[in-house]
Amino acid sequence: MRVLITGGAGYIGTHTMLEVLGAGHEVCVIDNFSNSAPEALARVKTLSNRSFTFHKADLRDREGLTMHLKAFNPDAVIHFAGLKAVGESVEKPLEYYENNVQGTINLLQAMKAAGCQNIVFSSSATVYGDPDFLPITEDHPLRSTNPYGRSKLHIEEMLRDLAISDPDFTAAILRYFNPVGAHESGRIGEDPSGIPNNLMPMIAQVAVGRRAHVKVFGNDYDTPDGTGVRDYIHVVDLAKAHVAALDWTQSHTGARAFNLGLGQGVSVMEMIDAFAKASGREVPYVNAPRREGDIATCYADPSRAQAELGWKAQIDLAGMCETCWLWQDTNPLGYKTKT
After folding, report:
1. pTM over 0.85
2. Total domain count for the chain?
């Protein structure tokens, strides 16, 4: 299969590239390096021992995008590219709608021009908002409390509308919970720009000595230890789900959503303790007030993905922490580390 991957140089994109290349597919990557590094693609090439096509391009450039898709003529697209920080989206909503929503419109127009009717879309559990019930199924009401989440929800709605309008169009909508960990080689991993927005990269940077402590936002939630509980999923498990979703698009039509999570919750303190054990390092933390919009508990019911994609997360919390630590310890400055 010929697979075009937008945002392929990013954290989830690189791990998915390895799995897609490993499955024998031909790959073309489009990325503008706004939150990624060329070095990541160089490492994917080494790890996979496979070649792939790359174009530095921006989804906001519809003409250039259409040119690249027509030239590659993909059978399917995996769409990762987009801005992803909740807090930043509140400060810069127009940038998020322009990059995420308008960028996806341009991509879908380019796919149409290239005759490609299959897409695997990188969505998010943020489309559920504060959950009405747990575990969260795909039939949970959809809503969001921030522009980032709303941009994902708008794109999901566009894909559903397209599937209604075109009986040959297929969209696998993958709702990620909390991706963590790194490739077992320690050669690729999460390398956030600036201060990490997510818990595990922050813990990892504290453990490796880049930061003084982890801020624990809220210790008075209605949870076993008072800290927020989330569903974490190893990035390699997540990547494998994209290969399963690609296969699904070849024998199905319509738009279908799938939760991707481990199906169980881990608290902030449990994560800090597990990472300290995996790394053999102390992870100092300080308690801080709750952040506006944060919820107490969120975890998935991933049974649809198991039943319909034949996929199930395999790597446990210890494996998540061990691989993340290997990546951070051998690459203390991320992709800027000299090797």
Report:
1. yes
2. 1
